Amino acid sequence: MPSVSAFAKPGTAPSESAAPIGVADLKIIESEDLEQYLSLQPGDWDMQFTQLARAAFSSRLRIIRFESLVIYQNSWGPASLAQGQSPEGWLMMGGIVNPDKAPVSWCGARKDRRHFACAAGGEEIEFCVADKCSDVVVLIDPSLLQQVLGDDVADAAMRTKHLDFGDAGGKLIDLALSMLDHCESEPQLLQQPAIVAQARSKLLRVLEDCFSNFDSQHGADIPDSRQRLVHCAIQHVMQSDGQTSAWGMAQAVGASQKTLELAFRDVLRTTPGKYLVLNRLNQAHHSLAYADKSSTRVIDVAMSLGFSHMGRFAGAYRVLFGELPSQTLER
Protein backbone atom coordinates (compact mmCIF):
# COMPACT_ATOMS: atom_id res chain seq x y z
CA MET A 1 0.00 0.00 0.00
CA PRO A 2 1.48 3.41 -0.88
CA SER A 3 2.47 5.51 2.11
CA VAL A 4 0.19 8.46 1.24
CA SER A 5 -3.10 8.25 3.13
CA ALA A 6 -6.01 8.74 0.75
CA PHE A 7 -9.07 8.77 3.00
CA ALA A 8 -9.89 9.76 6.54
CA LYS A 9 -11.72 7.12 8.54
CA PRO A 10 -15.52 7.36 8.43
CA GLY A 11 -16.73 9.93 10.93
CA THR A 12 -13.64 12.16 10.66
CA ALA A 13 -14.67 15.77 10.07
CA PRO A 14 -13.65 17.09 6.64
CA SER A 15 -11.72 20.34 6.28
CA GLU A 16 -13.65 23.54 5.58
CA SER A 17 -12.67 23.43 1.89
CA ALA A 18 -14.03 19.91 1.54
CA ALA A 19 -17.71 20.78 1.28
CA PRO A 20 -19.93 17.81 0.37
CA ILE A 21 -20.12 17.44 -3.42
CA GLY A 22 -21.97 14.13 -3.74
CA VAL A 23 -20.78 10.60 -4.24
CA ALA A 24 -18.21 9.20 -6.66
CA ASP A 25 -18.02 5.84 -8.39
CA LEU A 26 -15.37 3.17 -8.91
CA LYS A 27 -15.15 0.91 -11.93
CA ILE A 28 -12.78 -2.03 -12.36
CA ILE A 29 -12.63 -3.37 -15.89
CA GLU A 30 -10.64 -6.35 -17.12
CA SER A 31 -10.43 -7.03 -20.84
CA GLU A 32 -8.73 -9.50 -23.15
CA ASP A 33 -9.74 -7.63 -26.29
CA LEU A 34 -7.80 -4.58 -27.51
CA GLU A 35 -10.74 -2.95 -29.29
CA GLN A 36 -13.02 -3.34 -26.28
CA TYR A 37 -10.32 -1.93 -24.03
CA LEU A 38 -10.03 1.20 -26.18
CA SER A 39 -13.77 1.78 -26.00
CA LEU A 40 -13.71 1.58 -22.18
CA GLN A 41 -10.99 4.19 -21.59
CA PRO A 42 -12.35 7.17 -19.61
CA GLY A 43 -12.73 10.38 -21.58
CA ASP A 44 -13.44 8.98 -25.05
CA TRP A 45 -9.89 8.79 -26.35
CA ASP A 46 -9.82 8.82 -30.16
CA MET A 47 -6.91 6.41 -30.51
CA GLN A 48 -5.67 3.57 -32.64
CA PHE A 49 -3.23 1.10 -31.10
CA THR A 50 -0.52 -0.92 -32.77
CA GLN A 51 0.26 -3.99 -30.66
CA LEU A 52 4.04 -4.48 -30.83
CA ALA A 53 4.58 -7.59 -28.69
CA ARG A 54 3.53 -11.08 -29.70
CA ALA A 55 1.03 -12.06 -27.02
CA ALA A 56 -2.68 -12.29 -26.40
CA PHE A 57 -3.94 -8.92 -25.17
CA SER A 58 -5.00 -8.44 -21.55
CA SER A 59 -5.51 -5.34 -19.47
CA ARG A 60 -7.02 -3.96 -16.27
CA LEU A 61 -8.52 -0.52 -15.60
CA ARG A 62 -9.36 0.95 -12.18
CA ILE A 63 -11.30 4.23 -12.43
CA ILE A 64 -12.65 6.72 -9.89
CA ARG A 65 -14.84 9.57 -11.19
CA PHE A 66 -15.18 12.66 -9.03
CA GLU A 67 -16.90 15.90 -10.00
CA SER A 68 -14.85 17.46 -12.87
CA LEU A 69 -12.01 15.05 -12.07
CA VAL A 70 -11.16 11.45 -13.00
CA ILE A 71 -8.25 9.31 -11.82
CA TYR A 72 -7.45 5.88 -13.15
CA GLN A 73 -4.75 3.25 -13.38
CA ASN A 74 -3.94 1.40 -16.58
CA SER A 75 -2.31 -1.99 -16.26
CA TRP A 76 -1.34 -2.73 -19.84
CA GLY A 77 -0.88 -6.01 -21.62
CA PRO A 78 1.63 -6.35 -24.46
CA ALA A 79 3.82 -3.47 -25.61
CA SER A 80 1.79 -1.13 -27.80
CA LEU A 81 2.04 2.09 -29.75
CA ALA A 82 -0.92 4.51 -29.59
CA GLN A 83 -1.70 7.24 -32.12
CA GLY A 84 -4.60 9.68 -32.24
CA GLN A 85 -6.19 12.45 -30.20
CA SER A 86 -6.48 13.10 -26.48
CA PRO A 87 -10.00 13.24 -24.99
CA GLU A 88 -12.04 16.37 -25.69
CA GLY A 89 -13.03 18.53 -22.73
CA TRP A 90 -10.19 17.46 -20.41
CA LEU A 91 -6.59 18.20 -19.59
CA MET A 92 -4.81 14.84 -19.36
CA MET A 93 -1.77 14.22 -17.13
CA GLY A 94 -0.10 10.83 -16.76
CA GLY A 95 2.87 9.35 -14.93
CA ILE A 96 4.41 5.88 -14.80
CA VAL A 97 4.16 3.62 -11.75
CA ASN A 98 7.35 1.57 -12.35
CA PRO A 99 9.37 3.36 -15.06
CA ASP A 100 12.49 1.23 -14.53
CA LYS A 101 10.60 -1.94 -15.43
CA ALA A 102 8.24 -0.56 -18.08
CA PRO A 103 9.28 2.72 -19.73
CA VAL A 104 6.87 4.87 -21.70
CA SER A 105 7.71 7.18 -24.58
CA TRP A 106 5.26 10.11 -24.94
CA CYS A 107 5.48 12.38 -28.00
CA GLY A 108 9.22 11.83 -28.32
CA ALA A 109 10.29 11.87 -24.64
CA ARG A 110 10.43 9.25 -21.89
CA LYS A 111 8.02 9.63 -18.97
CA ASP A 112 8.41 8.51 -15.35
CA ARG A 113 7.25 9.38 -11.82
CA ARG A 114 8.65 12.90 -12.17
CA HIS A 115 8.19 13.70 -15.86
CA PHE A 116 4.50 13.49 -16.74
CA ALA A 117 2.74 13.31 -20.07
CA CYS A 118 0.27 16.12 -20.72
CA ALA A 119 -2.29 16.93 -23.41
CA ALA A 120 -5.16 19.36 -23.76
CA GLY A 121 -8.39 18.06 -25.28
CA GLY A 122 -8.24 17.05 -28.93
CA GLU A 123 -4.44 17.23 -29.31
CA GLU A 124 -2.63 14.95 -31.74
CA ILE A 125 -0.50 12.59 -29.64
CA GLU A 126 1.48 9.39 -29.92
CA PHE A 127 2.98 7.21 -27.21
CA CYS A 128 4.54 3.79 -26.71
CA VAL A 129 4.17 1.55 -23.64
CA ALA A 130 6.31 -1.45 -22.75
CA ASP A 131 5.08 -4.93 -21.77
CA LYS A 132 3.17 -5.03 -18.46
CA CYS A 133 3.34 -1.26 -18.04
CA SER A 134 1.29 0.47 -15.35
CA ASP A 135 0.46 4.17 -15.40
CA VAL A 136 -1.72 6.62 -13.49
CA VAL A 137 -3.79 9.16 -15.42
CA VAL A 138 -5.57 12.27 -14.14
CA LEU A 139 -8.28 13.91 -16.26
CA ILE A 140 -9.31 17.35 -15.04
CA ASP A 141 -11.83 19.83 -16.38
CA PRO A 142 -9.85 22.89 -17.60
CA SER A 143 -12.21 25.25 -15.76
CA LEU A 144 -11.47 23.45 -12.48
CA LEU A 145 -7.74 23.65 -13.23
CA GLN A 146 -8.06 27.41 -13.73
CA GLN A 147 -10.01 27.69 -10.48
CA VAL A 148 -7.35 25.78 -8.53
CA LEU A 149 -4.16 27.09 -10.19
CA GLY A 150 -5.10 30.42 -11.75
CA ASP A 151 -5.36 31.34 -15.41
CA ASP A 152 -1.65 31.78 -16.18
CA VAL A 153 -0.47 28.39 -14.88
CA ALA A 154 -3.50 26.56 -16.29
CA ASP A 155 -3.01 28.15 -19.73
CA ALA A 156 0.71 27.22 -19.70
CA ALA A 157 -0.16 23.61 -18.82
CA MET A 158 -2.65 23.46 -21.69
CA ARG A 159 0.12 24.38 -24.14
CA THR A 160 2.70 21.71 -23.26
CA LYS A 161 3.02 17.94 -23.69
CA HIS A 162 5.78 17.45 -21.11
CA LEU A 163 5.54 18.31 -17.40
CA ASP A 164 8.32 18.16 -14.80
CA PHE A 165 6.59 17.80 -11.42
CA GLY A 166 9.72 16.95 -9.44
CA ASP A 167 9.18 14.85 -6.31
CA ALA A 168 5.53 15.93 -6.18
CA GLY A 169 4.86 13.77 -9.25
CA GLY A 170 5.62 10.60 -7.30
CA LYS A 171 3.33 11.79 -4.48
CA LEU A 172 0.50 12.29 -6.97
CA ILE A 173 0.96 8.74 -8.31
CA ASP A 174 1.10 7.26 -4.79
CA LEU A 175 -2.01 9.17 -3.71
CA ALA A 176 -3.99 8.02 -6.76
CA LEU A 177 -2.94 4.39 -6.20
CA SER A 178 -3.81 4.64 -2.51
CA MET A 179 -7.28 5.94 -3.34
CA LEU A 180 -7.84 3.18 -5.87
CA ASP A 181 -6.64 0.53 -3.41
CA HIS A 182 -8.84 1.86 -0.61
CA CYS A 183 -11.92 2.03 -2.81
CA GLU A 184 -11.36 -1.42 -4.26
CA SER A 185 -11.26 -2.91 -0.76
CA GLU A 186 -13.93 -0.59 0.71
CA PRO A 187 -16.19 0.61 -2.15
CA GLN A 188 -18.71 2.02 0.34
CA LEU A 189 -16.30 4.93 0.97
CA LEU A 190 -17.40 6.50 -2.31
CA GLN A 191 -21.01 6.61 -1.14
CA GLN A 192 -20.15 9.00 1.71
CA PRO A 193 -20.21 12.59 0.36
CA ALA A 194 -18.02 14.08 3.09
CA ILE A 195 -15.28 11.50 2.51
CA VAL A 196 -15.54 11.91 -1.25
CA ALA A 197 -15.19 15.69 -0.90
CA GLN A 198 -12.16 15.26 1.35
CA ALA A 199 -10.48 12.84 -1.08
CA ARG A 200 -11.11 15.16 -4.03
CA SER A 201 -9.70 18.13 -2.07
CA LYS A 202 -6.60 16.10 -1.20
CA LEU A 203 -6.05 15.34 -4.89
CA LEU A 204 -6.37 19.01 -5.80
CA ARG A 205 -3.89 20.00 -3.07
CA VAL A 206 -1.30 17.55 -4.41
CA LEU A 207 -1.91 18.90 -7.92
CA GLU A 208 -1.23 22.39 -6.56
CA ASP A 209 2.07 21.10 -5.17
CA CYS A 210 2.92 19.58 -8.56
CA PHE A 211 2.41 22.93 -10.28
CA SER A 212 3.90 25.10 -7.53
CA ASN A 213 7.21 25.58 -9.42
CA PHE A 214 5.87 25.01 -12.90
CA ASP A 215 6.41 27.27 -15.88
CA SER A 216 6.40 26.55 -19.60
CA GLN A 217 10.21 26.20 -19.76
CA HIS A 218 10.46 24.16 -16.54
CA GLY A 219 7.95 21.62 -17.85
CA ALA A 220 9.25 21.24 -21.40
CA ASP A 221 11.90 18.52 -21.14
CA ILE A 222 13.81 18.13 -24.40
CA PRO A 223 13.37 14.77 -26.17
CA ASP A 224 16.59 12.93 -26.99
CA SER A 225 17.56 12.49 -30.63
CA ARG A 226 16.48 8.83 -30.97
CA GLN A 227 13.11 9.46 -29.33
CA ARG A 228 12.58 12.39 -31.66
CA LEU A 229 13.53 10.40 -34.78
CA VAL A 230 11.04 7.65 -33.96
CA HIS A 231 8.33 10.20 -33.16
CA CYS A 232 8.83 11.95 -36.54
CA ALA A 233 8.98 8.63 -38.43
CA ILE A 234 5.69 7.50 -36.89
CA GLN A 235 4.11 10.83 -37.83
CA HIS A 236 5.24 10.18 -41.42
CA VAL A 237 3.63 6.72 -41.37
CA MET A 238 0.37 8.25 -40.11
CA GLN A 239 0.37 10.94 -42.78
CA SER A 240 1.09 8.41 -45.54
CA ASP A 241 -1.64 6.06 -44.23
CA GLY A 242 0.98 3.33 -43.93
CA GLN A 243 1.87 3.49 -47.62
CA THR A 244 5.59 3.94 -47.14
CA SER A 245 8.77 1.92 -46.59
CA ALA A 246 11.69 1.84 -44.20
CA TRP A 247 13.66 3.83 -46.77
CA GLY A 248 10.80 6.32 -47.11
CA MET A 249 10.67 6.77 -43.33
CA ALA A 250 14.42 7.47 -43.20
CA GLN A 251 14.13 9.98 -46.05
CA ALA A 252 11.22 11.72 -44.34
CA VAL A 253 13.14 12.29 -41.09
CA GLY A 254 16.48 13.10 -42.72
CA ALA A 255 18.40 10.15 -41.28
CA SER A 256 20.18 7.11 -42.66
CA GLN A 257 18.34 3.80 -42.55
CA LYS A 258 20.93 2.48 -40.08
CA THR A 259 20.45 5.46 -37.74
CA LEU A 260 16.68 5.09 -37.88
CA GLU A 261 16.92 1.35 -37.25
CA LEU A 262 19.06 1.93 -34.15
CA ALA A 263 16.51 4.48 -32.90
CA PHE A 264 13.59 2.08 -33.45
CA ARG A 265 15.39 -0.74 -31.67
CA ASP A 266 16.09 1.53 -28.70
CA VAL A 267 12.59 3.04 -28.41
CA LEU A 268 10.19 0.38 -29.79
CA ARG A 269 12.35 -2.75 -29.57
CA THR A 270 11.78 -3.44 -33.27
CA THR A 271 12.96 -2.26 -36.70
CA PRO A 272 11.24 0.22 -39.06
CA GLY A 273 10.40 -2.58 -41.50
CA LYS A 274 8.90 -4.83 -38.82
CA TYR A 275 6.99 -1.88 -37.41
CA LEU A 276 5.34 -1.31 -40.80
CA VAL A 277 4.23 -4.97 -40.90
CA LEU A 278 2.93 -4.74 -37.32
CA ASN A 279 1.09 -1.56 -38.24
CA ARG A 280 -0.67 -3.30 -41.15
CA LEU A 281 -1.53 -6.34 -39.00
CA ASN A 282 -3.10 -4.04 -36.42
CA GLN A 283 -5.06 -2.24 -39.12
CA ALA A 284 -6.38 -5.64 -40.19
CA HIS A 285 -7.32 -6.46 -36.59
CA HIS A 286 -9.17 -3.16 -36.22
CA SER A 287 -11.02 -3.63 -39.52
CA LEU A 288 -12.06 -7.20 -38.72
CA ALA A 289 -13.15 -6.32 -35.17
CA TYR A 290 -15.59 -3.69 -36.45
CA ALA A 291 -16.64 -5.31 -39.72
CA ASP A 292 -20.06 -6.65 -40.65
CA LYS A 293 -19.24 -10.35 -40.73
CA SER A 294 -22.10 -11.08 -43.12
CA SER A 295 -20.52 -8.96 -45.87
CA THR A 296 -16.80 -9.04 -45.03
CA ARG A 297 -14.19 -11.58 -46.09
CA VAL A 298 -10.82 -11.94 -44.39
CA ILE A 299 -9.08 -12.21 -47.76
CA ASP A 300 -10.45 -8.85 -48.88
CA VAL A 301 -9.24 -7.09 -45.74
CA ALA A 302 -5.81 -8.71 -46.03
CA MET A 303 -5.41 -7.89 -49.71
CA SER A 304 -6.44 -4.25 -49.17
CA LEU A 305 -3.54 -3.91 -46.73
CA GLY A 306 -0.97 -5.47 -49.05
CA PHE A 307 -0.91 -9.05 -47.73
CA SER A 308 -0.83 -11.35 -50.73
CA HIS A 309 -0.10 -14.70 -49.06
CA MET A 310 -3.06 -15.72 -46.88
CA GLY A 311 -1.24 -18.48 -45.01
CA ARG A 312 1.59 -16.19 -43.94
CA PHE A 313 -0.87 -13.43 -43.06
CA ALA A 314 -2.98 -15.75 -40.88
CA GLY A 315 0.13 -17.16 -39.18
CA ALA A 316 1.60 -13.74 -38.38
CA TYR A 317 -1.81 -12.52 -37.20
CA ARG A 318 -2.26 -15.48 -34.86
CA VAL A 319 1.21 -15.09 -33.37
CA LEU A 320 0.59 -11.40 -32.67
CA PHE A 321 -3.01 -11.51 -31.40
CA GLY A 322 -3.43 -15.08 -30.17
CA GLU A 323 -6.29 -15.87 -32.55
CA LEU A 324 -6.95 -16.31 -36.27
CA PRO A 325 -8.32 -13.44 -38.39
CA SER A 326 -11.54 -15.42 -38.91
CA GLN A 327 -12.01 -15.67 -35.14
CA THR A 328 -11.73 -11.88 -34.75
CA LEU A 329 -14.30 -11.38 -37.53
CA GLU A 330 -16.69 -13.94 -36.02
CA ARG A 331 -16.36 -12.48 -32.52
Describe the structure.
- The longest helix has 19 residues, at 167-185.
- The strands form 2 sheets. Strands 1-3-4-11-6-9-12 form a 7-stranded antiparallel sheet, with helices on both faces.
- It has helices at residues 34-40, 142-149, 151-158, 167-185, 193-210, 216-219, 225-239, 246-253, 257-267, 272-290, 298-304, 310-321, 325-330, and strands spanning 25-31, 46-51, 59-66, 69-75, 80-85, 91-96, 104-106, 109-111, 115-120, 124-129, 134-140, 162-164.
- The chain contains 13 helices and 12 strands.
- With 331 residues, it is of the alpha+beta class.
- Residues 1-5, 8-21 and 216-222 have low confidence and may be disordered.
- Helix 7 packs across helix 9 (257-267).
- It folds into 2 domains: 25-219, Jelly Rolls; 225-330, Arc Repressor Mutant, subunit A (Orthogonal Bundle).
- The relative contact order is 0.14.
